[in-house]
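Researcher: Going back to the complex we discussed earlier. I've cleaned up the inputs and rechecked each line, so this should be the final set. Can you rerun the prediction on the complete assembly and write out the structure?
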Amino acid sequence: MIELENVAYSYGGGELLSDITLRLSPGSFHFLTGPSGAGKTTLLKLCYGALMPTAGHVHLFDTDVRELTRDDIALARRRIGVVHQDCQFLNHLSVSENIALPLLVSDRDMLAEDANLRELTQWVGLTQRADALPPELSGGERQRAALARAIIMSPDVILADEPTGNVDWEMSQRLMRLLIELNRMGKTIMIATHDLALIRATKAHVQARVLRISNRRLQLAGADL
Amino acid sequence: MKLDLEQLRGLLAGDAGAGRVVPPTGYTAWLTLFAAAAMAFLAVFALALSLATSRLADRWGDALARSSTLRISAPEGQMIAQTDAALKVLQTTPGIATARALDAAEQRALLEPWFGPDLPIESLPIPQLIEIIEEGDGYDAAGLRLRLAAEVPGAVLDDHTRWREPLVRAASRLRLLGWLSLLLIAGTVAAMITLAANAALAANAQVIGVLRLVGARDGYIVQAFVRRFTLRSLGGAAVGTVLGCIAILLMPRTDVGGGFLTGLGFEGWHWFWPLMIPLLAGGVAYLATRAAAQRTLRDMP
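Model: Rerun complete. Updated structure for the full complex:
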């Protein structure tokens, strides 16, 4: 599905990631952890083609990312839902329009997708806030809206970068329950977080692999997690 | 630059969704509209100048090319005889339709702008002028000069070449200047739209980033910006063109003021040309915005 093979990434003369090998197989659940600045976001960006590796190979759905055109990468991103810590909304559009944005840019029939949009908005608990503008949402509501947007195209993979960074413990648990539910539906999940308590709490409900970036390399986390 | 027919179709058909993903802009929209209107207004005048000078060059060229003047300078006692002899020569010259000696009133009218009215022309040694109108391919000027030299020694043939050519050349230069002005205006519109589009693209970098993140293809993003700037330029240019045409209509008519400048305007089917200005502005905006957007997107992940 998404595969990194001996990948390195350098920026500004320094190597941020080195010799990374990772395979996100269908239906798997991964946590990516490490200290701030370790390269978690960079690794996620490599996984959805926002960055090109300086060495090694990244395969998106069995094709080397270097062989993909910009349009091919755009099409691949429709199969990868991305949730950012800062959510990245279009602030002039309503919550429901932001959630529907992937449908809009894919030229899907919006009328045909209306029921799907309503159901999803209800699933993330934002029915009452559907017409609000993103700046009017709380941190938890923003994260749930971002998750809804990430999954509206029914992607194969969901990549989440610190999705619980701006929410309280209760809300982070609620978000994780949504992600676990998606994983049970067969979606591949990778969550970048430095919140070890969250990882421990989640591991009680799902079989997750925990990976740690340390000294620019990717390691399987030990039994301390 | 390859014209993307799918994009052009999308532009004409409209895509409210693509239009909505780009946030509305306030004063930059008005600035673009105003600049497009001002440029279209100037373009109407440049076009009118080009067409008027074109007509002028044609008129001068045609009128002067078909006529010549024979000037007879002779002692008072021989003037009538030489004039008659010249008219006989001219009447038998192939390529000449008519030859007519100007009467005293006509000659006085010709001199009036310089000497004023009531010039006592009879008491002055004024040469007799004969107006020659050509037909077909015209006459052989060199042959006619030789015949006149032999039969009418006081006759000087002026086929207008000497001053017709500079006049026609000047009119042609003015016409060229008009077209050059139109090109410069189109270039200015392109530069202005490119600057505005670049500013809009830079201001909306985050929007573009989000669109790329959710799987928007470059063509979709480009179309959203292209549509906005093209329609804005089209609208502004339409307003400017209408105002320019009204200004042209309000200019003094040729038969009232006389002269070249009052002839500035459109005649007959030439009124079709100003209609092309908004379309041209829209086309320039389309290409300029498309190029700017594609350039910006190339540098984004």
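Model: Worth noting: The radius of gyration of chain A is 17 Å.
Researcher: Good, that matches what I expected from the previous run.
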